[in-house]
Amino acid sequence: MGERWSSWSEMEDQYREGALALKTTRDRLKDEDFHGTIADREIMDSMIRDLEDMARALKRKVLYEFGSLSEDELALLTDRQRQIAELRQRYNYREIAEILGISPKTAFYVYQKAVRNIKKIQRQKKQKIPLGLSPQQEQIYLLYSQGKKPKEIANIIGTSSGNVSKQLSLIRKILPKSQEN
What we know:
Helices cover 73% and strands 0% of the residues. The chain is mainly alpha-helical and 181 residues long. Mean pLDDT is 81; it is low at 1-5.
């Protein structure tokens, strides 16, 4: 069987990742005193701009076109977000507002927040970050999983080692038993 169709949202992320990979390569080549031609650098910069332009276009598709989210993505949302996102698959924001008795601005805001939540959850899954952590806890979790000690983490993120230790304790409570080992 063939590969599953990607949603606009997933495609946007793939284009952004491609642009980031090219930027990283370009910067690494600059650091290595790359002796390529100016044309090579211009081509790479042009490719980065093209990928970023496509990512922006896909972001607009997610917000303004019907059918832009997959069933898997819809399953990640709260009930209210899912309700509006499912309606968004068929209706514009004005029509959703009429159906639900809310303002079009509220319908747009809730849908926009739903898309942000989907992207956050997908990023957390990709980086193997447990769901339900605060942004600071995510930072601490990632640094701790890289082998950093609480004092090092505290210096990196600009907080006390006591706060880091407390956050690590809270993170351990959130972690499923299978992830603790």
